[in-house]
């Protein structure tokens, strides 16, 4: 046999051995239940998806809603335009909520971008947050995942990625008593506000948190919707100014600040450092481990001290105008820790209040009466979180 024939025979034998070995290895993977890795050319880098805080459910007069944030970071070297975000039941992939178009634009915000920006494109290396609320109807999924569909650059078409599994928290703790007396009070909050409490991250101690995720600002109005009895630039002329704020449960006083000065005018209120935004405040440690915060209190009005045991309905202080505030009101929220800035906001429900109506347009606060509920709906609500810009009345 010629030398060339020998080389060709050996080469064929080596190729046959490689093919047989490859097939044998593939069979071993199949028997072991191990999938072969995807072809390199089909792999695609896109978004890193994260849920940093568990989705939390809370009940309002409109039913149960889940509040959550989906964090996405563009890990590529090109911009990616988010086209659609879906929340799916992790058990079977059933779509629970989907967001696209203008609705998605309202919900997606780039960290560090101007508030006025309304674009779903995430530049290379940038981090965005999708602020999500979805209703719980006929199913209460134990866990969820997310599907993000995006447009790749250069006409490469669309891609999608699924991930960010999270367990849904349905417990809202023991129902709380009223933080104020009487009314009417506007329960000011709205998930869509781009600079509202629900979307404000505080990044301290090496962690980003949203203390005010479920915060409510209570503003006193009269039967005609007016907020003041005289000059709106004078804090003392606001209807709620000086109102007693009440312990919402039997609890221990965890923190107090009472010495911050109050601006003599609403328009002259200066900008405050982050640690001073709450103004004078009281924090209660509830017996179930949560913390209740009362912020912007009147100077010198705090009637409790740290470590003191208080009882539901006990007066803690008076509504005022200290800290970062655009007018006298009571900021109330519940969180998982004793810090006004370094804790995660948690849902809460109030055991009872009368729902009088709501404002569809926040621009009408103080200018017109709210839209009333019909007689069948204007009844006492129980174990609910006040809905967006609802007008409520507590027991006197």
In short:
This is M23 family metallopeptidase. The protein has helices spanning 3-32, 101-107; strands at 47-50, 56-60, 63-74, 80-89, 95-100, 108-110, 121-122, 127-135, 143-151, 158-167, 185-188, 202-204, 207-209, 216-220, 244-246, 251-257, 280-286, 291-297, 309-310, 315-318, 330-335, 345-346, 353-358, 371-372, 380-381, 390-393.
Description:
By secondary structure, this protein is mostly beta strands. The chain has two domains: 47-167, Immunoglobulin-like (Sandwich); 185-393, Distorted Sandwich (Glucose Permease (Domain IIA)), CATH 2.70.70. The protein is built from two helices and 26 strands. It has helices at 3-32, 101-107; strands spanning 47-50, 56-60, 63-74, 80-89, 95-100, 108-110, 121-122, 127-135, 143-151, 158-167, 185-188, 202-204, 207-209, 216-220, 244-246, 251-257, 280-286, 291-297, 309-310, 315-318, 330-335, 345-346, 353-358, 371-372, 380-381, 390-393. Strand 4 and strand 5 form a beta hairpin. The longest helix is centred in the N-terminal third of the chain and has 30 residues, at 3-32. The chain is globular. The model is unreliable at 1-42 (pLDDT under 50).
């Amino acid at each position: 046999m010629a030398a060339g024939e020998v080389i060709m025979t050996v080469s064929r034998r080596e190729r046959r051995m490689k093919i047989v070995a490859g097939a044998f290895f593939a069979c071993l993977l199949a028997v072991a239940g191990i999938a072969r890795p995807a072809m390199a050319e089909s792999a695609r880098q896109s978004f890193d998806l994260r849920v940093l805080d568990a989705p939390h459910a809370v009940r309002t007069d409109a039913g149960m809603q889940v509040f959550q944030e989906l964090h996405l970071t563009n890990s590529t070297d090109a911009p990616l335009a988010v086209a659609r975000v879906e929340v799916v039941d992790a058990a079977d992939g059933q779509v629970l909520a989907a967001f696209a178009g203008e609705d998605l634009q309202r919900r997606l915000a780039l960290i560090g971008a101007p508030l006025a920006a309304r674009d779903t494109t995430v530049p290379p290396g940038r981090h965005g947050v999708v602020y999500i609320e979805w209703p719980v109807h006929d199913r209460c999924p134990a866990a969820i995942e997310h599907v993000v569909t995006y447009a790749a650059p250069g006409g490469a078409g669309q891609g999608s990625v699924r991930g960010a599994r999270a367990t849904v928290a349905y417990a809202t703790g023991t129902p709380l008593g009223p933080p104020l007396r009487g009314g009417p009070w506007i329960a000011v909050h709205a998930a869509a506000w781009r600079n509202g409490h629900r979307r404000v991250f505080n990044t301290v101690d090496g962690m980003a948190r949203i203390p005010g995720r479920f915060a409510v600002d209570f503003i006193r109005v009269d039967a005609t919707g007016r907020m003041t009895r005289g000059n709106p630039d004078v804090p003392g002329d606001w209807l709620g100014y000086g109102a007693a704020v009440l312990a919402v449960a039997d609890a221990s006083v965890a923190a107090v600040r009472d010495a911050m000065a109050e601006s003599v005018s609403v328009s002259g209120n200066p900008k405050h450092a982050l640690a001073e935004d709450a103004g004078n405040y009281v924090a209660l440690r509830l017996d179930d481990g949560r913390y209740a915060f009362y912020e912007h209190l009147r100077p010198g009005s705090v009637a409790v001290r740290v470590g003191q045991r208080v009882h539901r309905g006990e007066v803690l202080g008076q509504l005022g105008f200290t800290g970062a505030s655009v007018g006298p009101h009571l900021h109330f929220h519940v969180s998982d820790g004793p810090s006004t800035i370094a804790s995660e906001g948690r849902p809460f429900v109030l055991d009872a209040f009368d729902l009088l109506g709501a404002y569809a347009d926040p621009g009408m606060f103080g200018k017109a009466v709210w839209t009333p509920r019909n007689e069948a709906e204007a009844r006492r609500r129980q174990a609910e979180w006040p809905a967006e810009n609802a007008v409520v009345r507590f027991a006197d």
